[in-house]
Amino acid sequence: MIEYRQLVMGAVGSNMGAIGGILKNQLALPGRSRSTRSRWPTARS
Question: pTM above 0.85?
Answer without folding.
Answer: no
